[in-house]
Amino acid sequence: MAEKKYELGELLISEEQIRTRVEELGKQISGDYRGKDLLVVGILRGSVPFMADLIRAIDNPLSIDFMSVSSYGASTKSSGVVRILKDMESNIEGKDVLIVEDIIDSGLTLSYLKEALLARKPASLKIATFLDKPARRKVELTPDYVGFPVEDVFIVGYGLDLDQKYRNLPYITHVVEVK
Ligand code: IMP
Ligand code: MG
Description:
Elements: E1 5-13, H1 15-32, E2 38-44, H2 48-56, E3 62-71, E4 82-86, E5 96-104, H3 108-118, E6 124-132, E7 145-149, E8 155-156, E9 172-178
Parallel strand pairs: 2-3, 2-5, 5-6, 6-7
Antiparallel strand pairs: 1-9, 3-4, 8-9
The structure holds inosinic acid and magnesium ion.
Magnesium ion is lined by residues 46, 102.
């Protein structure tokens, strides 16, 4: 079978829209965590651009850490069983933890991770996701902070990839298969 070819579709979310929205989220999070011991945990690799912008929009003292997780199985669809490829280094017991993710799709990855992290007894655990595809949810999972809700199309840019490419685009677009 020939390798599939893709090209970029129309622009969905511009750099300017991203900047404005991330500033808003930063203000909201700053207010919500005033006086707290905040630890922001980015889920590698897709969260990196959002994480970098978001933490600079939060004007409280905070710490950062990272985790890398992967679904089991060869299927490109999430299986719901998550493997921790790289754990964070911080002890989260008693801390106010904010998980930062690029996109929530089925919700399987984060609902598994949430349970695993709650067992470590943080003071609180919330989720900030840049994008949310609520129509695709397979388990109940409501993120606490959402950059933008999106339709069920395959999206790349601002950390999101197709076969590890396009993460560096500073805007959000979707990819279409070239026939
Ligand atoms: P889920 O919520 O467990 O289904 O998985 C979410 C993960 O799937 C995200 O962290 C992304 O890595 C990936 N993903 C889901 N939808 C997209 C998309 O439209 N573009 C790029 N990656 C996606
Ligand atoms: Mg991801």
